[in-house]
Amino acid sequence: MSEARSAWQEMSRKSSPNARARYNLAVGRLFDHLRCNSINWERKAKELGTVLDRSRTLGTGLTLEDLDALVPASEVSLKGIGARHLDPGIGLPVVGWKSSPGLDSRRFEFAPPTGIPLNLTALLDFSTKQPTWKFLYGGRAPTLKVGRRSENIAIDWSAPAALYWRMSDLDDLDLLKVFLPTRFTDHAGLFFATPYREEKIPIVFTHGLKSSPGTYKTMYNDLVGKKWFRDRYQVLFFSYPTGIAWPYNAAEFRRQLRRAREFAASKGSLTNWNKMVMVGHSMGGVISRASLVDPGERFYDASYRTPLEDLNVSAATRQAIENARLYQPLQAPSRAIFMAAPHRGSPLADRKLVTWVSSIIRLPKTLTIDLATATLDEISKAIQQGGQTRPPLTSIGTLSPGYKPYAALADSPYRRGLTYHSVIGDQGKGGGTNSSDGVVPYWSSHLSGAKSEVIVPCGHSLVSHPETIKEVSRILKLHLKER
Predict the structure, then answer these.
(1) Model confidence at 53: pLDDT above 50
(2) Range of the domain at 226
(3) Same domain (yes/no): 103, 38
């Protein structure tokens, strides 16, 4: 305590890297005492001769008692996500963890599944009568008054997301989300990586088949380590059960984004919301693209030969079919980035083994699409009325190049004002127009109207490749200039 106070007094007189290092080391040791068996934070602070600053409530409305864990950022492993990004300064970067409520309780709207990581910095303020613990929310309060001087706050930008991926089981369930999609609907939905800010542009990441939002963890860590990105962008992730056919996941994608738009409108202006950027990998690229074109009746006609009103199905299923096939494109995104997206399907889906794998996927009996509960059996029968004897309703089945909605997707015009880019993988087998990423061939990923197209020397899992991250960064900087 004496060492921390002495260093504080020295920093109040002049800038001193040595004093800052002494202060940070002392505060780190004191924090270890504060959090040890921390059931009663007030009592622990009193035992140290300190008090807690309750005025800021962690910058989020949560209190220390609300947290399930509070750990030094340096103790959080960054394995699998890349380099640690730090802003030097005073204080101890820590990460708070608030678990999401159980399935019997409603999760906070657009909050991440599993729990919420909080980017905090612990400081001990000696300008008050008793030394006061302050927990400042990363980025909201970048400086602290030390005497008459201001000192920058130390912030760890990597640890919160790294803790989330460790605490989340999304990455562990990728295959099960394909074969048993109905069991993981609690992990489905749209969520903000950080609390919503009206002044920032949203960027929506959508993963692919046999995947989860965790596919973007390396790219996300790289982006949040850059000040220009943190100052201007905020990230949303869309998670979905990947065993279900992409037209129905695309319908849920549109529903969630329309809900999020209403949420943003309730917080203020939609100026930056309308500058949204979408990033979709693999099937996520198809889901994104299908939500940005104006299909008219093309998607409906690709599977049905009977007028919608004449289908022999329930009213709820008819409404669900309309939401999935006869819809208006999303208006918010002004730019999209498609990565290794099978815009015309993948030949792998037609192989016998893959067809067998598709047959063992256990689909739910019903689907909720835009609040209409559809019976899958009725959807199958309705498609059969159009002449398809074995309608594909699984994700793998709808990856076949022969799946009719791909032709409808190709014929549907993009929404006005949209700019889009392509990032394509090449394993080096063939090169050029004959190349492939091992799953999706170039002829399926290529889009003639793209503003840019970059071919990355990588397989289908190209999201974490340095050249992919570099290209996405370039496009996002360009977006700031052009918008």
Answers:
(1) yes
(2) 169-482
(3) yes
- What total of structural domains would you count in the chain? 2
pLDDT tens sequence across 248-260: 889 989 999 999 9
d(CA 7, CA 311): 77
Q: What per-residue confidence (pLDDT) applies to 58?
A: 78
Burial label for 443, CB within 10 Å (0-12, 13-18, 19+), is middle
Does 465 lie in the same domain as 367? yes
Tell me, yes or no, whether 211 and 308 share the same domain.
yes
Residues 188 and 335 in one domain: yes
Q: Which residues of 216-242 are buried (b: 16+ CB within 10 A; e: fewer)?
A: bbbbbbbbbbbeebbebbbbbbbbbbb
Query: Of 160, 180, 205, which marks where a domain is finished?
Result: 160
Residues 113 and 190 in one domain: no
Residue 137 shares a structural domain with residue 199 = no
Mean local confidence (pLDDT), 37-57: 87
